[in-house]
Amino acid sequence: MITRTYRMPVALALSVFVLVGALGRAQDPPPPPDPGGQPGVDVQARGPVHEAFAQPSDLQPAPGPVVTKQPPEPIEELPPDQKPEGDNVQWIPGYWAWDDGTQNFMWISGCWRDVPPGRRWLPGHWQPVDGGWVWVAGFWAPNELTQVQYLPTPPPTLDQGPSAPPPDANSIYAPGCWVYVTNRYFWRPGHWIPYQANWVWTPPCYQWTPSGSIFIDGYWDYPLDQRGLLFAPAYIDPRVFGGGGRPYVPQQVVATDFLLGALFVRSAARHYYFGDYFEPRFGKLGFVAWPDYHPVKGAYDPTFAYYHHQHAGDARWEPALRNLYKERLNGTIPRPPHSLVNQNEALRAIGANKTAENFVHKDVNLTHAQNVTALVPLNEIAKHRVTNLAPIGGAKAVGVPARALKLEQINMEAIQREQKAATVMREAAQQRRAAEAQVFTGGKVPIQHTDAPHMINLPRPPAPVAALRPPQRTAPPVVVVPKHEERPIPKFEPPHPVAPPMHPVAPPKKK
Asked: What is the largest CA-CA distance in the chain?
């Protein structure tokens, strides 16, 4: 294997994107208010979507923001005592994410997730680098994966969108991508795949790490409305819930219909965001409305492509959805609340004005109450109908029936099993972090496309926390992809890698 030592000047490493740097060190906020029954918690109605719940596709990996403030240790978190019914619903633990609006960390609450068939979750982690810390995203790995190959940065995509019309109206375009074979990159052309009801095709993508790029091949996943329960993020006082303190139990669920009407992609942060990012200033910060995000020209975001086809029988659905985004941007339709406190105030105000059931716009069939209801308490979510915004265009019969979420009560023994499994996941993330750091600090990172890749053994997957139900649904067949083509590698400058920390950082303490 070819290895070489690489060291980058501090100034160049920090040029990747330092969020705090010139702004100075953010101060810890005082303990936040208690709107949801748990002191030390300020529940938010906007923020990043847990990356195990959904991640935007991206063919060109790049380092995320470098944060100069050290992230806190993960808080004590317990799963709630209700979970969705499903073949294999697991609790995925939460993590800290940097919020450049407040210049501090926000807790991304854990989520109940119906696991994609044949996959297991490898959580992300904060990696110390020269100048601060950078987030390394988690990903859904194949169950049988025992080693991760860290590749040199792939060349820029050659995909310019579909070169031929779809074979039928029921087809979705999957962009082409580079695939590393033996000792070089080959091109896999874009192709059409058939729409499958109740399934979303997650296309191949690359995950950036400081130790190289990880290729994740395509797989079938569930639609957003069938993935489980996404809980609201929160500003949390780590002094209350950390260091062996009392556990935090998320209780506010992000309503599925709200999510579809207020979802954004922020490529620089490698995250979906939900809520009020409609102001023009967010566009300048790289937030793109979900219906307008295109991985390549002529291709929708894969989750949007699914709902686009699901509502294909209603010609008014997509224009009404786009109007909702546009009129919120213009301020014609009120923008969503920012926190649970704001949401409760807004609901009281429209109730007092008796406008709750009025529609927000002549072309958007959404009531004022629905417009501001981002979060629903867990004990009420089973009564909250999921429509996938089918009525938004005003059609009476759209072929997408409303349904209720089916939950089941779990006892303390089951909660403890899930908590133990979450601990194992976090330990696996730390093992991955340590293994990547050895490559990172040892100067073995593949950078140029001609550099040899590096292999790291994965931690063994944990045993199932409970007996799983027999699968109720079988995933569609694996998508047949075109043959690889040998194409000239275009000249390109790989993203500047971050540099190792100037001083060693002690590993986190074991609990």
From this structure: 71
* pLDDT tens track for 155-167: 999 999 998 899 9
The four Cα atoms 117, 122, 124, 129 give a dihedral, to 10 degrees, of -140
The first and second tokens of residue 51, run together, are 């990356």
Q: What's the per-residue H, E or C state across 446-463?
A: CCCCCCCCEEEECCCCCC
Q: Which residue has the tokens 């959404």?
A: 366
Cβ count near 337 (within 10 Å) = 23
How far apart (Å, rounded) are the C-alpha atoms in residues 172 and 429?
34
Contacts of 50 (CB under 8 A, 6+ apart): 92, 94, 108, 109, 110, 111, 230, 231
Cα 252 to Cα 344: distance, rounded to the nearest angstrom: 13
> 3-state DSSP call for residue 419?
helix
Given a cut of 90, is residue 201 above it in pLDDT? yes
In the chain, what is the straight-line distance between the N-terminal and C-terminal CA atoms, in Å?
38
Contact 185, 489 (CB under 8 A): yes
Tokens 């105000």 correspond to: 349
What torsion, rounded to 10 degrees, do the Cα atoms 264, 268, 270, 272 define? -10
The model carries a pTM of 0.90
The answer to whether 422 touches 250, Cβ cutoff 8 Å, is no
CA distances for 50 relative to 97, 217, 313, 364, angstroms? 10, 21, 31, 28
CA distance 50 to 503: 31
501 band by pLDDT with thresholds 50, 70 and 90: confident
CA distance linking residue 281 with residue 453, whole number of Å: 40
From residue 315, alpha-carbon distances to 238, 310, 357, 398 in Å are 48, 11, 24, 9
